[in-house]
């Protein structure tokens, strides 16, 4: 089963969430080239999303070269160029930061306050290493 | 590609009950759930697809063939599991299998054996002597292995225990993988809808109440908690009570809130059950 | 021909599932019939006219009563009356013609053995019968009753298609049917001396060849007619 977690309350379209998380898994190396992906129907059941939406996400990922479908065999992770991976990772990280910062701005944080929070969390998370 | 099941303008009167006019197409590769209150006509519609009763109007085609035509060959491609099996009581499990299996060219004996084992069904017991849950398990074990293009299930999970229900869902998902196949089912179980359905066809008192793509339906309705609820009716507003407001057009609602500087404390999508109750009211 | 083979296969399933009760009832009915047959000689001497009715009842009704409860006509959901197998088979890829033929096979199994035993018992158990019938006349007599078994008895098989009836309508039509039969029988009794069996004996003995031809025609016509009738009934009925 794929570690995909959908936020159904989010205004972001479900197929977009699936695409983004699958891309992150591929770019992050958790899903390596050649790994079989669950069938559309199986993923539909696990995520409680219709096959229509899952198919759309798979089609988009295929068009973008992240996965490929071998007829009769299933869907597999494609070899993704490392620069492409980087790109995807950077984009994904950027999106997350942007969201967090937007949230802080909504609560009227100043730039310095935001930086403080950032430093604190960074310190906490890297201490264990 | 034409739909595998085409229901056009179908009408049926039974005493005071009026079913239809119903229009519905079932496409290959999809699972469509018929949802409605008790007595809304779901089972009747399924039986009409199987040509078990005469239409009072309209037409039903299965794989392009009129179901009430002279050619009855389409039945080889359809599996129908009624809510209550009629005429099975006197037969033992293995007798039913011997009766049914040879009628289907694609009968999958391995799948049958697997299901009998997984569900732990005593094949030498008479159907009439089995508990409702066991009867349902045997029915399903005699349905999926037929390997037909179309599978019609009337409340397939109504009497199943929780592990069996999960097992059935896995089996059905597996079954759907093999070829292009289509499933029509009726259910009152939200779990079935969430995990299996692609389309929901809602019925109320014999009338259709809409065909919805499940994910579209699930993301259309939103509940807002608003401090200082305006007296005017908001765009998209479906109902309100106190500081709660339900909208079937979140974009329009949020646009309005933004423009008028109204603060929404929180908002949340409605659960599928809640949406269905809303639509069937 | 293939249809009959499929029909036979389906019929065997049903008969096998109920073979114990079917055999028990059959043996019981045959024994009971033979007891009744003991008074056949008295009937032919016109000393026990009630035998005529008893025989008719046994000949036509016992076959219909032989099936075990699960396989008999019964009330289903709503206003539907039918034999459960007819519904069951319509949900499977079995053509209506095969369903009809399988009902006919089952009815034949339930009626013919008993009826043959009844007809065979006549010359065995009655001195008067043996004296009155030549071998050819006896064959004609058997054929007449076989034709009756088909033309009248297989109405039961055809009616197994069922229908959508109110219970009161069923009771009413049942009463009408009984009254109709009674009137018919009374009329026949007025014109034919010595009861119905006696009358068919006279037919077989005096118009032997005519009887054989008529019996063949009636038998075949009845066989086809009731199948067509059942087809119409199934088409008309809502199995909801």
Tell me what the structure shows.
- The complex is a heterotrimer of chains A (129), B (281) and C (240).
- Helices cover 60% and strands 8% of the residues of chain A.
- Chain A contains 5 helices and 3 strands.
- In chain A, strands 1-3-2 form a 3-stranded antiparallel β-sheet.
- In chain A, strand 2 (67-70) and strand 3 form a beta hairpin.
- In chain A, helix 1 crosses helix 3 (51-63).
- Chain C is built from 11 helices and 3 strands.
- The A-B interface holds A 8-9, 11, 13-14, 39, 41-42, 44-45, 48-53 and B 29-31, 169-170, 173, 176-177, 194-199, 213-215, 218-219, 250, 267-269.
Which keywords apply here?
heterotrimer, B: 281 residues, alpha/beta, 6-stranded mixed beta sheet, 4-stranded antiparallel beta sheet, 9 helices, 31% helix, C: 240 residues, mainly alpha, 3-stranded antiparallel beta sheet, 3 strands, 79% helix
Helix content of chain C: over 70%
Mean pLDDT of chain C: 89
What integer is the average pLDDT of chain A? 84
* Amount of beta strand of chain A: 5-15%
Biggest sheet of chain A: strands, sense, closure? 3 strands, antiparallel
Which blocks of ≥5 consecutive residues of chain C have pLDDT under 50?
A: none
* Helix/sheet category of chain A: mainly alpha
What is the strand arrangement across the widest sheet of chain A? 1-3-2
Task: Give the assembly state of these chains.
Answer: heterotrimer
**Helical stretch tally of chain A:** 5
Total beta strand runs of chain C: 3
**How large is the radius of gyration of chain A?**
17 Å
Report helical residue fraction of chain A: 55-70%
N-C termini distance of chain A: 29 Å
* Greatest interface (CB-CB under 8 A), with counts per chain: B-C, 29 and 30 residues
Beta percentage of chain C is under 5%
Number of helices of chain C: 11
Order of helices and strands of chain C: HHHHEEHHHHEHHH
Overall 3D shape of chain C: globular
Poorly predicted runs of 5 or more residues of chain A:
none
Quick synopsis:
The complex is a heterotrimer of chains A (129), B (281) and C (240). Chain B is of the alpha/beta class. Chain B is built from 9 helices and 14 strands.
Topology, element by element:
The complex is a heterotrimer of chains A (129), B (281) and C (240).
Chain A: H1 14-27, E1 36-37, H2 40-47, H3 51-63, E2 67-70, E3 74-77, H4 82-106, H5 111-127
Antiparallel strand pairs in A: 1-3, 2-3
Helix pairs in contact in A: 1-3, 1-4, 2-3
Chain B: E1 5-14, E2 17-26, E3 31-36, H1 42-49, E4 57-62, E5 65-66, E6 78-81, H2 93-100, H3 109-119, H4 132-141, E7 150-154, H5 162-178, E8 182-186, H6 190-196, E9 199-204, E10 207-213, H7 214-220, E11 222-226, E12 237-241, E13 244-247, H8 250-259, E14 264-269, H9 272-280
Parallel strand pairs in B: 3-8, 3-9, 6-7, 7-8
Antiparallel strand pairs in B: 1-2, 1-4, 4-5, 9-10, 11-13, 11-14, 12-13
Helix pairs in contact in B: 3-4
Chain C: H1 2-17, H2 19-37, H3 40-44, H4 50-65, E1 74-75, E2 80-82, H5 84-90, H6 96-125, H7 127-132, H8 135-159, E3 163-164, H9 167-191, H10 195-206, H11 208-236
Antiparallel strand pairs in C: 1-2, 2-3
């Amino acid at each position: 089963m794929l570690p995909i977690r959908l936020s159904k309350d989010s205004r972001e379209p479900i197929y977009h969430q699936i695409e983004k998380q699958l891309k992150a898994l591929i770019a992050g190396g958790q899903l390596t080239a050649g790994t079989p992906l669950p069938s559309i129907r199986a993923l539909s059941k696990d995520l409680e999303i219709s096959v229509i939406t899952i198919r759309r996400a798979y089609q988009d990922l295929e068009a973008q070269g992240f996965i490929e479908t071998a007829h009769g065999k299933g869907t597999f992770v494609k070899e993704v160029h490392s620069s492409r991976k980087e790109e995807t990772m950077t984009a994904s990280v950027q999106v997350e930061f942007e969201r967090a910062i937007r949230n802080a701005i909504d609560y009227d944080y100043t730039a310095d306050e935001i930086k403080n929070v950032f430093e604190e969390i960074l310190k906490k998370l890297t201490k264990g290493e | 590609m034409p739909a595998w099941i085409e229901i056009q303008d179908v009408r049926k009167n039974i005493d005071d009950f009026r079913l239809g006019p119903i229009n519905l197409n079932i496409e290959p590769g999809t699972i469509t759930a018929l949802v409605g209150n008790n007595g809304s006509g779901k089972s009747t519609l399924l039986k009409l697809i199987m040509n078990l009763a005469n239409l009072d109007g309209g037409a039903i085609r299965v794989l392009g063939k009129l179901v009430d035509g002279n050619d009855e060959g389409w039945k080889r491609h359809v599996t129908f599991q009624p809510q209550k099996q009629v005429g099975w009581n006197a037969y033992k499990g293995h007798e039913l299998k011997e009766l049914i299996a040879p009628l289907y060219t694609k009968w999958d004996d391995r799948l049958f054996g697997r299901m009998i084992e997984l569900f732990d069904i005593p094949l030498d017991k008479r159907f009439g002597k089995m508990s409702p849950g066991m009867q349902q398990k045997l029915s399903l074990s005699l349905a999926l292995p037929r390997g037909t293009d179309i599978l019609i299930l009337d409340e397939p999970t109504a009497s199943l225990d929780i592990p069996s229900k999960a097992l059935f869902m896995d089996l059905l998902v597996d079954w759907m993988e093999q070829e292009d196949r289509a499933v029509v089912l009726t259910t009152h179980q939200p779990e079935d809808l969430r995990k299996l359905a692609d389309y929901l066809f809602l019925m109320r008192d014999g009338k259709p109440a809409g065909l919805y793509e499940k994910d579209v339906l699930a993301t259309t309705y939103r509940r807002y908690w608003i401090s200082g609820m305006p007296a005017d009716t908001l765009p998209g507003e479906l109902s309100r009570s106190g500081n709660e407001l339900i909208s079937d057009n979140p974009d329009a609602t949020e646009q309005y809130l933004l423009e008028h500087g109204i603060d929404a404390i929180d908002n949340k999508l409605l659960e599928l059950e809640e949406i269905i109750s809303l639509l069937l009211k | 021909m293939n249809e009959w083979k499929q029909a036979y296969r389906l019929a065997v399933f049903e008969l096998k599932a109920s073979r114990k009760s079917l055999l028990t009832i059959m043996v019981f009915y045959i024994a009971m019939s033979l007891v009744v047959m003991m008074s056949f000689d008295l009937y032919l001497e016109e000393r026990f006219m009630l035998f005529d009715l008893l025989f008719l009842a046994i000949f036509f009704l016992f076959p219909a009563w032989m099936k075990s409860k699960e396989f008999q006509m019964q009330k289903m959901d709503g206003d539907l009356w039918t034999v459960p197998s007819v519904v069951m088979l319509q949900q499977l890829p079995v053509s209506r013609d095969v369903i009809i033929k399988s009902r006919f096979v089952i009815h034949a199994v339930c009626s013919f053995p008993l009826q043959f035993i009844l007809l065979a018992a006549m010359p065995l158990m009655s001195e008067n019968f043996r004296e009155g019938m030549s071998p050819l006349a006896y064959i004609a007599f058997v054929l007449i009753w076989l034709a009756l078994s088909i033309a009248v008895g297989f109405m039961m098989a055809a009616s197994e298609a069922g229908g959508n009836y109110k219970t009161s309508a069923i009771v009413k039509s049942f009463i009408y049917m009984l009254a109709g039969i009674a009137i018919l029988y009374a009329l026949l009794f007025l014109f034919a001396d010595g009861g119905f069996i006696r009358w068919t004996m006279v037919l077989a003995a005096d118009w032997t060849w005519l009887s054989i031809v008529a019996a063949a025609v009636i038998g075949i016509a009845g066989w086809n007619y009731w199948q067509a009738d059942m087809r119409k009934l199934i088409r008309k009925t809502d199995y909801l």
